[in-house]
Amino acid sequence: MKFRKTKPVEVRGFLDEGTEVIGDLKFSEVLHLHGRIKGKVLSDGEIVVGEKGIIEGDVEVGVLTLGGTLIGNIIAKQKAYFLSTAKVRGDVCTPILRVDEGASWEGSITTSRKDDRQESKPHIRAAAADLETVR
User: Fold this and answer.
1) Which of 87, 83, 90 has its CA nearest to residue 60?
2) Which of 67, 95, 124, 126 has its CA at a distance of 20 to 30 angstroms from the CA of residue 117?
3) Which residues contact residue 116 at a Cβ distance below 8 angstroms, ignoring those fewer than 6 apart?
4) Cα(13)–Cα(51) distance, rounded to whole angstroms?
5) Quick one: which of 20, 63, 23 has its CA closest to 39?
6) What's the whole-model pTM score?
7) Residues 6+ apart with CB under 8 A from 81
8) At a CB cut-off of 8 Å and minimum separation 6, what does 134 contact?
9) What is the three-state SS of the chain?
10) Cβ distance 68 to 87 under 8 Å?
11) Phi, psi (deg, nearest 5) at residue 92
């Protein structure tokens, strides 16, 4: 008999085709989107955007799985996965990025961990202080 090492993921929300949300959206756990969102999407959880799902707005989530269209900047705190049907127009920042053949995007991609960015801050502050001293 096999036991799962991790707890199964529980879907907490589902927006199907024909559903449109206008405004910011916050959720916990996992949200499946096959409809349309016009606004920011915020969560530490996971969003799974189906092939017909569309987001027009910035997204900041824990995990992003994208099979549809996203027009906006993306921050995926843990990882982002672009399926072959994904279309992205915006900048992407995530420590782990997986892209299937056929996915398309316009924008920059930054793959750094949050810890890396925090470590650079003292260095940037020191450089800014040096610049102020020179002035």
Assistant:
1) 90
2) 67
3) none
4) 17
5) 23
6) 0.77
7) 63, 64, 65, 66, 97, 98, 99
8) none
9) CCCCCCCCCCEEEEECCCCEEECCEECCCEEEECCEEECCEECCCEEEECCCCEEECCEEEEEEEECCEEECCEEEEEEEEECCCCEEECCEECCCEEECCCCEEECCEECCCHHHHHHHHHHHHHHHHHHHHHC
10) yes
11) -120, 130
Cβ atoms of 42 and 25 within 8 Å: the answer is: yes
Q: Quick count: other Cβ atoms within 10 Å of Cβ 8?
A: 5
Q: Are the beta carbons of 44 and 27 closer than 8 angstroms?
A: no
